[in-house]
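Protein in question reproduced for absentees:

***
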Amino acid sequence: MKRSIVLPILLLIYLVVMSFIGWPYYSENGKYFEYFGLIALTLIVIVCLFFFLKKRDRYRREHQKRKDASFRRNFRDDKIR
C-alpha cells in the first residue's frame, strides 16, 4: 500500500482514539468549541498531508519516467513522452 494512503489512515485512527480519550475532560469543563476545533484543525492537516503525499508520489513517478527515458535515449534515438 502507498504511503500517501497508509499514513493519513493511521493518523485518522490516532485522532479517533485521542478524541475518545479526551472527551470526558472537555465535556466536564464545557470546552466544546476547543474540542471540536482541535478535531477540525487536525482533520484539515490530515487531508492536506494526503494531497501533498499524492502529489509527491506523482512527481516521483514522472521523474523516474523521464530518467528511464533519458537512459534509453542514450542507447537509441527515443523521444520522451
User: Anything to note?
Assistant: The helical segments are 3-29, 32-75. The chain has a mean pLDDT of 87. Residues 3-73 form one domain.
